[in-house]
Amino acid sequence: MKAEQSSGGAGPREKIIILDFGGPEGMLVARRVREAQVYCELLPFNTSWAEIRRHQPRGIILAGGPGRGGAGAGPRCDPQLFKAQVPLLGIGYGMQLLALERGGEVEPDRLLKEGGGPLKIEEPEPLFQEQEGAAPDGFSGAGWRGLVKRVPPGFKVLARTEEGAVAAMGHPRDRLYGIAFNPAFPESRGGMHLLKRFLYDVCGCSADWTPRRFIDAAVEQIRQTVGPAERVVCGLSGGIDSSVVACLLDQAIGERCVSIFVDHGLLRKGEGEEVSRFFRERLRGPFIAVDARKRFLERLKGVTDPEAKRKIIGTEFINVFEEEARKLGEIAYLAQGTIYPDVIESGVGPGGTVIKSHHNVGGLPEKLGFKLIEPLRELFKDEVRLVARELGLPDRITNRQPFPGPGLGVRIIGEITAERLELVREADAILREEVEQAGLAGDLWQFFAVLIGVNAVGVKEERRHYGPVICLRAVTSTDAMTAAWARLPYDLLDRVSRRITGEIPGISRVVYDITAKPPGTIEWE
Ligand code: XMP
Question: Can you give the pTM of this predicted structure?
Answer without folding.
Answer: 0.84
